[in-house]
Amino acid sequence: MAATPAPPQAPPKPTWDPRRHQPSFPWLRPTIRIRLTLLYGGMFLIAGILLLSIIYLLAAQAINTGNEPLFKIVGARELQVTSDNCPAIKAENLTFSQFNDSISACIDHQRQIALDNLLSRSLLALLGLAVIAFAFGYAMAGRVLSPLGRITRTARAVAGSDLSRRIELDGPDDELKELADTFDEMLERLQRAFTAQQRFVGNASHELRTPLAINRTLLEVHLSDPTAPVELQQLGKTLLATNERSEQLVEGLLLLARSDNQVVDRKPVDLAEVAGQAVDQVHAEAEAKGVVIRGLQKPAVVQGNGVLLERIALNLVQNAVRYNVPEGGWVEVTTDVEHGQAVLVVSNTGPVVPAYEIDNLFEPFTRLRTERTGSDRGVGLGLSIVRSVARAHGGHIAARPREGGGLVMRVTLPV
């Protein structure tokens, strides 16, 4: 029965990387400083407009008070009046009433011109003061928010596993200093917990490996005795296989604990070389199972830990070989640089994997359709380690079912 094609998987959400590039146009970001600047400038602008409106109304009321003319000409023998601003009074043969009306209209016109000049000049002054207010508000907002900048820079350094950094903010005992002190206390506790975890992993690495190594040596010595009974040899082989499985479990748990943290010591590592070494290590197992390994590994250099990155490739190739079809199976391993990121892709034939079980494959001790059960294929930590190591390097892994059976694993790492 043919398998129905699985629906396309949504692309994984990119993990936050504290080393990511700053935006090309920081002025366009809606930062708190920009918002405070707009708030301060906007409040000043609104207050200025209100003040200007009040002054304009008061000036208009003062000018228009007593709108009636202060004098009227009722008679004259040789009265001659001229004016460049009031051409209406230049007309000849004007009656006294017409002349007085012309004088009133001219005065009203001059009052309106005065109000318009007052308004236009006030608006220009307000515009200039608004520019100064926005610039002053931007400077003051930066000064007020400078402690938050120190907190942000310290948080970015801590995100890179530098837990020794502290803010140590000076200044008045306000809310920002309280926030910085609380953050420093949290960092102190995190550093103690991280140091204790490293110490525990180191001690556990020694204490757990030593008895297992002794057990393996004793079992190998007894199995090398040709005079040992068949039943004892069979029991020894069973115990040796169990001991080997326990060693794999311990190594996987310790590696998983170490890889959950950011990688500090980074060196240039070529994914093509890492993938080639993984293929060489699994080549014998693949031949025994009749699985063909193919693919082109192009150079893809990343900054990271070579041992951990080799574990990514080795776990993916081993899973692809072990979870394959009995006959005619293949595994394709490719590396390349795409869109400024290094990509490792491992595809394989195998059983049909439902799309809803993809996420569960990355959980510890979880296998396809079985959880926390014994298996001769591994201890159920391979993909969990791959995801943890990829995250520690600022990358991610995505899996999708392959049409016809099998999986396509895609690991993306920053260059």
UniProtKB/TrEMBL annotation:
Domain HAMP: 142-195
Transmembrane stretches, start-end: 38-59, 123-141
Region of interest: Disordered: 1-22
Membrane topology (UniProt): Multi-pass membrane protein
InterPro entries membership: HAMP_dom (IPR003660), HATPase_C_sf (IPR036890), HATPase_dom (IPR003594), His_kinase_dom (IPR005467), HisK_dim/P_dom (IPR003661), HisK_dim/P_sf (IPR036097), Sig_transdc_His_kin-like_C (IPR004358), TCS_sensor_his_kinase (IPR050428)
A GO term, aspect molecular function: phosphorelay sensor kinase activity
Subcellular location: Cell membrane; Membrane
CDD domains in UniProt: HAMP, HATPase, HisKA
Root EC class: transferase
Keyword terms: Kinase, Membrane, Phosphoprotein, Transferase, Transmembrane, Transmembrane helix, Two-component regulatory system
Domain Histidine kinase residue range list: 203-415
Catalysed transformations (reactions): ATP + protein L-histidine = ADP + protein N-phospho-L-histidine
Top-level taxon in the UniProt lineage: Bacteria
A GO-annotated cellular component: plasma membrane
EC number: 2.7.13.3
Protein name: histidine kinase
Species: Streptomyces zinciresistens K42
Taxonomy of the source species: Bacteria, Bacillati, Actinomycetota, Actinomycetes, Kitasatosporales
